[in-house]
Design goal:
The radius of gyration is 24 Å and the shape is elongated. The termini are far apart. The protein has a single domain, classed as MetI-like (MetI-like fold, Orthogonal Bundle), CATH 1.10.3720. The chain is mainly α. Helices cover 69% and strands 0% of the residues.
Length: 298
C-alpha cells in the first residue's frame, strides 16, 4: 500500500504582518496628538509656499529698485524692502525653497547612509562594530557647526557643498540609533527564525530588522530636519551658504543684520520663518514619538 501524498511544507513568514488593531491604534494616537497636527499644519504651510512660490510671491525676488530701498511694511511691499529695493516677502517665500530643499535632501541622505551603516555595525558586531563605532565616535566628538564650517570652507560655498556638509554632520546620529536598535532587535526570535530558514544577512537586515526600527528612525529624521535647516541658516549667515543673489533664510538674516538699525524687520521676518519651521518639525517629532510609544494608551 503506497504512502498518502503529504502537502509540501509552506515557508512561514519570519515577520508577521502588522495587525490591523495595532495600525488602527497608531493612527488613533497620531490623530489625537494636538502637537502632531499643529506641527504638520505649520510645516505644510511652509512647504506649500515653497512649491507655489512663483504664484504666491507678489514681486520678483531679484528685481532691484534703488528708489524703493529700505522701505518699511506697506500696502505695496507688505514686509518692506531690503537695501537693494527687493521685496522682503517675496525673498522669504523663495528662500523657503532653498532652505527646505537643503534640509530635506541632507536629512534624507543622512538617513539612507547612516541607517545602512548602523544596521551593518549592530548586526555583525565584533571587529566590524568596533571599527564603525570608533569612527562614528570620532565624528560625533566634533561640534556639528564647526564640522560644517570646516567642510564648506574647504570645498567652497555652494548649495551642493552645503548639503554635503550637513549630511556628514548628521550621519553619526543615525548610525548610533540604528546600531543600538539593531543590537536589541537581532536577539529577537524572528531573527533566529530567519536564520533557520536560510535567509541571507542582507535580507534579514533590510527586510526584517529595518521595518521594525523604522519608528525610531522616523522620529529622529523629523527632529534632525529642523537641525539641518538651522545649520543651513547658520552657515548662510556667516557667508558659507548659497552664493548671492540666491535667497535663503540665513542669507536674508545676514543681509538684515547689516542694516539692523535702519530696518530691523529685514532680520526679524526671515528669523520668524525659521522659527515657525523649527517649531513645527519639533512638534511633528514629539507627536510621532508619542504615537509610536508602545507604552502609550490606545
Amino acid at each position: 500500500m503506497s504512502a498518502p501524498d503529504l502537502p509540501l511544507p509552506v515557508e512561514p513568514e519570519a515577520v508577521p504582518a502588522p495587525r490591523p488593531g495595532r495600525l488602527r491604534a497608531l493612527y488613533q494616537r497620531a490623530t489625537r496628538s494636538g502637537a502632531l497636527l499643529v506641527g504638520l499644519a505649520m510645516v505644510s504651510v511652509m512647504i506649500l509656499c515653497a512649491i507655489f512660490a512663483p504664484l504666491i510671491a507678489p514681486h520678483d525676488p531679484y528685481a532691484q529698485s534703488i528708489l524703493h530701498k529700505l522701505q518699511g511694511p506697506g500696502p505695496v511691499y507688505w514686509l518692506g524692502t531690503d537695501q537693494f529695493g527687493r521685496d522682503v516677502l517675496s525673498r522669504i517665500i523663495y528662500g523657503a525653497r532653498i532652505s527646505l530643499f537643503v534640509g530635506f535632501v541632507s536629512t534624507a541622505l543622512a538617513v539612507v547612509i547612516g541607517v545602512a551603516i548602523g544596521i551593518v555595525s549592530g548586526y555583525f558586531g565584533g571587529r566590524v562594530d568596533r571599527l564603525i563605532s570608533g569612527a562614528n565616535d570620532g565624528l560625533m566628538s566634533f561640534p556639528q557647526i564647526i564640522m560644517g564650517i570646516v567642510i564648506v570652507a574647504l570645498l567652497g560655498p555652494s548649495i551642493h557643498n552645503l548639503i554635503l556638509a550637513i549630511t556628514i554632520t548628521a550621519i553619526p546620529a543615525f548610525v548610533r540609533i540604528a546600531r543600538g536598535s539593531t543590537i536589541a532587535m537581532k536577539e529577537r526570535d524572528f531573527v533566529d527564525a530567519c536564520r533557520a530558514l536560510g535567509f541571507g544577512n542582507g535580507r534579514i537586515m533590510f527586510r526584517h530588522i529595518l521595518p521594525n526600527i523604522a519608528d525610531e528612525i522616523t522620529v529622529l529624521a523629523s527632529l534632525w530636519m529642523a537641525t539641518a535647516i538651522r545649520t543651513e541658516a547658520t552657515l548662510s549667515f556667516i557667508g558659507l551658504g548659497a552664493p548671492p543673489p540666491i535667497a535663503t533664510w540665513g542669507g536674508l538674516v545676514r543681509d538684515g543684520f547689516d542694516n539692523l538699525l535702519d530696518s530691523p524687520g529685514l532680520s526679524i521676518f526671515p528669523s520668524i520663518a525659521i522659527l515657525i519651521v523649527m517649531i513645527g518639525l519639533n512638534l511633528v517629532g514629539d507627536g510621532l514619538r508619542d504615537a509610536t510609544d508602545p507604552r502609550a494608551p490606545t
